[in-house]
Specification:
- By secondary structure, the protein is mainly alpha-helical.
- The chain has 2 domains: 50 residues, no CATH class; 68 residues.
- The chain is flat and about 50 Å long.
- It starts with a helix and ends in a 5-residue tail after the last helix.
Length: 130
């Protein structure tokens, strides 16, 4: 298993909720490498993860996330319209609601970050913000 493939798998397993120890055990067996190599991947991730995931610009990442939520919403709406059972329709509505909520939160996130940065700047200068 190549280094890039191993690191992509590391990110996938972490995204699925596996602990660091579980990831190290699984990947060291699959990649046929030492556990230390996997731990080194974790330690150096700030160097390789942005490059591997093409996370160079914040706006690009934001657009990817918005696109994913939109696609999830569309797929759920198709399930709602074509689903046979009531449970399928309820699940689709629930997914649509969650995707809509996450899309909204993602859309307002840049403004919240800008406000927090402005408050942080004022706090550093000693300006009282009521």
């Amino acid at each position: 298993m190549e280094v890039i493939t191993r690191r992509l798998e590391l990110l996938k397993l972490e995204g699925l909720g596996f602990s660091q120890a579980e990831i190290v055990n699984q990947l060291s067996q699959r990649a046929e490498c030492s556990k230390r190599a996997i731990y080194l991947d974790f330690e150096s991730r700030s160097l390789w993860q942005p490059i591997l995931q093409s996370v160079m610009k914040y706006d690009d990442v934001l657009m990817k996330v918005v696109n994913r939520y939109e696609q999830i919403y569309r797929q759920a709406s198709i399930c709602l319209l074509t689903g046979e059972s009531d449970w399928t329709k309820i699940g689709a509505l629930n997914t649509m609601l969650k995707a809509n909520t996450m899309l909204f939160q993602t859309a307002v996130l840049p403004e919240v970050i800008r406000r927090l940065q402005a408050l942080e700047t004022k706090a550093k200068r000693g300006v009282f913000v009521p």
